[in-house]
Prior knowledge:
This protein is an alpha/beta fold. The protein has 3 domains: about 10-65, no CATH class; about 75-230, Nucleotidyltransferase, domain 5 (2-Layer Sandwich); about 245-305, DNA polymerase, domain 1. It has 12 helices and 9 strands. The strands form 2 sheets. Strands 3, 4, 5, 6, 7, 8 and 9 form a 7-stranded mixed sheet that branches. Helix 5 links the parallel strand 7 and strand 8 (about 185-190). Mean pLDDT is about 80; it is low at about 300-333.
Amino acid sequence: MNPFLPQEVHLPVEIADAGLLEAFLLARRGARVFVRVPRRGPAADRVELANTNAQERHRVRFRRLGGEEALGVERLARVLDLSVPPRRIEAFDISHLQGTDSVASVVVFEDGKPKKSDYRLFGIASQSLLAPDDFKSMAEAVERRYRRVRDEGGPMPDLVLVDGGRGQLQAALSALDRVGVELPAVGLAKREEEIWMPGRPDPIRLSAKDPALKLIQRLRDEAHRFAITTHRGRRSKRMRETSLTSIPGVGPTRARILLKRFGSLSGVAAADPLEIIAAVGPATARAVQAYLAESAREPQSRVESSETRVQDPARSDPVRSGLTPAGPRTTDG
């Protein structure tokens, strides 16, 4: 007889085949076990109390871990066959515009939620302006990230996610090997939303509703958003600085000072001259004001010159204008 099985089992609802369960419990206990659904009395109160305790325990558990996010973390651990749930996941994305201003973003999720204080961005030094290489960019970003984390004793992730398929994943694994750290890593390919794992010839394909897929899609999309947003900001800043550095006597340092104080070239144009002097000194302020004054005159000069060049076709065509060429006058008769 199994002493850990009771004589009665009380349930909150009826089940399809209570007799089958009783037969199973009989075999395990060596004596009959009654399966009942109490409607009133102390037994019903105990069932209600057990149900309340179970609901509260569920709320406490998933409130602590993040609710639906925690389900994604646990499901991802099962899908990838990880020894522990990946509480800390770091995702990489590469962004560039025709090879210029190439950047790699790293975003961090803990317990399925973004930890924005740990986000990082890397300028990619290995990029050729004419031949950008996403694989080399990914390898450089991963190596720089974890070499620094290793050297500074920072927290290592439970999982590394790279935006891309087999090639990007292999680049990341090679970088980890050079740093000398072993971390679980996977790639998420955009086209079919396939998960690539080391040592597997084929990717993992999950349902679009799978909590694990939803979690890593959020990570991938957040990494892409962070990279693109910062990339656009850098290009915009460079373009503004280029406009200012075209002013004689204004270099990159003074251009940044002006941008920080006035926000844009139009902001500088609208500023009080004394404020410009306070920002960059009287000599540079005079150069800026002269440049702005010249720029203000140029559009009007272009308009006037274009007006002198463009003529009314009717005025230039003697036939269409109703005029006849000069010549000897003739009379009838």
